[in-house]
């Protein structure tokens, strides 16, 4: 077999080669995207779900420990916990008890897979079953986007390196935007120094125009010279749009024309021959972005369906969002059709002898046919669920699986045929024209004075703007438009207010 022998995500590599080989065949091991994929309730004096508790791995002086990452818990879950008479230590114990129960059933997420991989590699009797096959199969392991590696990821790679497996790490520290997941530029630098890696710097850019290369250089560590644009020679100046930001992204107003800022950007892109479908709208936070609202972990079933409905009715929606929406609807439909089942949708389909694709098609059709969410939507949803043709073998039981609670209506979308996604979702993507929303005051001063090595916000902006091939635009508060143009001009970046 010719190399490469395996292409996949880091999660899938860890699962396939460092965890799954030492798992019992029964129950069949399953790797979940998150604990939100299964019904995993945690009940103390109130009921929450496992997916509401993000977990973290700490690696300190070679010791590995787990904890609930309380600082990453969503605000809705925070309010529920604040009303509980149990403290966080008790909740954490309940979280790990529930998690361990699900692991016993064969379910893991990437977090548990990393914990298990570290244990396997650090235990000689288990490592001897894993390492020799890896060394015989792979001449080297190439890790792309290495700047996104967490401390646990680097610890796994370090153990593989120490076992004799050559590593090639490809990454851009200026694109390290997952500090909340434990990925830090300094950690990667320390790791490469520790293993004695040879560094080769790449300075050619095969995506962006010279103007965008200059713009990007103002946001990266060391203020290094701009990369060389290899394939483009566009000279379109950076567009700065003075904006009156509203509570909802679809209502942001362009101060110069009175139109929405999205319409102003569309018109500007059209002047340079860029079609709407070749444009990308992006922002750091969902609340700022004109487009699809986010799925909220732990939301009641009715609100989750409302979010999924908004996704399937949004033109040009990202395929990963569409998949998540169909999966969410599938879980709710399965809860009604098979009320005694708690497994993941793929395992239920496997038990029924049905392809998962059939369930996703059914879920999409169900969502698409639902009426638009409204305050009394629960009755419409329930009637639709009862009338919808079920999967073979379904055994509904009365009211079991009926979506309850008050529906949280999704915010209106931008009503645009442009793609829209937060920065963390567009990493690796690109478009002819990109509009980045910067609603917070003081961003120009931050751009001018902060250090990208320590300020992740600058790295987030860098990732967003380097998605652009020909045209980059920034929507900023009215009083920051002129200072931003002055800042960019001082760095020899062509920029203009539109």
UniProtKB/TrEMBL annotation:
Per UniProt, residues of the UvrD-like helicase ATP-binding domain are 1-209
Please give the biological process terms from Gene Ontology that the record holds: double-strand break repair via homologous recombination; replication fork processing
Please indicate which superkingdom the organism of origin belongs to: Bacteria
Q: Which GO terms describe its molecular function?
A: 3'-5' DNA helicase activity; ATP binding; DNA binding; hydrolase activity
Which Enzyme Commission number(s) are listed?
3.6.4.12
EC top class named in words: hydrolase
Q: Which InterPro entries match?
A: DNA_helicase_UvrD/REP, P-loop_NTPase, UvrD-like_ATP-bd
Know the name of this protein? DNA helicase
**Species per Swiss-Prot/TrEMBL record:** Actinacidiphila cocklensis
Its gene name is uvrD
């Amino acid at each position: 077999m010719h190399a490469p022998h395996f292409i996949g995500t880091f999660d899938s590599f860890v699962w396939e080669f460092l965890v799954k080989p030492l798992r019992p065949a029964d129950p069949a091991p399953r790797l979940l995207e998150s604990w939100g994929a299964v019904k995993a309730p945690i009940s103390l004096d109130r009921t929450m779900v496992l997916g509401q508790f993000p977990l973290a791995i700490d690696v300190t002086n070679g010791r590995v420990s787990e904890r609930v990452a309380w600082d990453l818990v969503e605000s809705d879950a925070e309010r529920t916990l604040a009303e509980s008479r149990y403290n966080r230590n008790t909740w954490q114990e309940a979280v790990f008890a529930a998690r361990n129960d699900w692991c016993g059933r064969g379910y893991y997420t990437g977090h548990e897979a990393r914990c298990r991989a570290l244990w396997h590699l650090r235990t000689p009797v288990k490592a001897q079953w894993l390492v020799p096959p890896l060394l015989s199969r792979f001449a080297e392991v190439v890790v792309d986007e290495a700047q996104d590696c967490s401390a646990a990821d680097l610890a796994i790679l370090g153990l593989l390196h120490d076992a004799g497996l050559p590593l090639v790490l490809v990454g851009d520290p200026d694109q390290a935007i997952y500090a909340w997941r434990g990925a830090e530029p300094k950690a990667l630098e320390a790791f490469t120094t520790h293993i004695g890696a040879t560094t080769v710097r790449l300075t050619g850019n095969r995506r962006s125009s010279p103007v965008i290369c200059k713009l990007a250089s103002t946001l990266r560590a060391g203020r290094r010279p701009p990369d060389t644009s290899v394939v483009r020679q566009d000279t379109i100046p950076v567009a700065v749009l003075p904006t009156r930001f509203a509570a909802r992204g679809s209502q942001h107003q362009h101060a110069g024309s009175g139109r929405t800022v999205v319409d102003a950007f569309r018109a500007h892109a059209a002047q340079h021959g860029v079609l709407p479908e070749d444009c990308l709208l992006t922002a750091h936070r969902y609340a700022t972005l004109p487009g699809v609202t986010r799925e909220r972990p732990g939301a009641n079933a009715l609100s989750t369906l409302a979010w999924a409905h908004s996704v399937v009715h949004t033109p040009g929606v990202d395929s990963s969002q569409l998949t998540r929406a169909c999966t969410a609807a599938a879980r709710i439909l399965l809860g009604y059709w098979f009320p005694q089942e708690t497994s993941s949708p793929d395992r239920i389909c496997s038990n029924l002898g049905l392809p998962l694709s059939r369930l996703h098609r059914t879920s999409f059709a169900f969502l698409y046919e639902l009426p638009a969410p409204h305050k009394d939507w629960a009755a419409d949803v329930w009637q639709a669920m009862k009338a919808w043709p079920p999967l073979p073998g379904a055994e509904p039981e009365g009211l079991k699986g009926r979506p309850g609670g008050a529906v949280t209506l999704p915010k209106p979308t931008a009503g645009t045929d442009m793609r829209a996604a937060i920065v963390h979702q567009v990493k690796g993507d690109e478009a002819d024209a990109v509009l980045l929303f910067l609603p917070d005051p003081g961003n120009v001063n931050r751009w001018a004075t902060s250090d990208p090595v320590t300020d992740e916000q600058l790295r987030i902006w860098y990732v967003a703007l380097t998605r652009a091939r020909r045209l980059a635009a920034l929507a900023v508060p009215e009083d920051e438009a002129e200072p931003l143009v002055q800042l960019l001009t001082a760095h020899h970046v062509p920029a203009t207010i539109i």
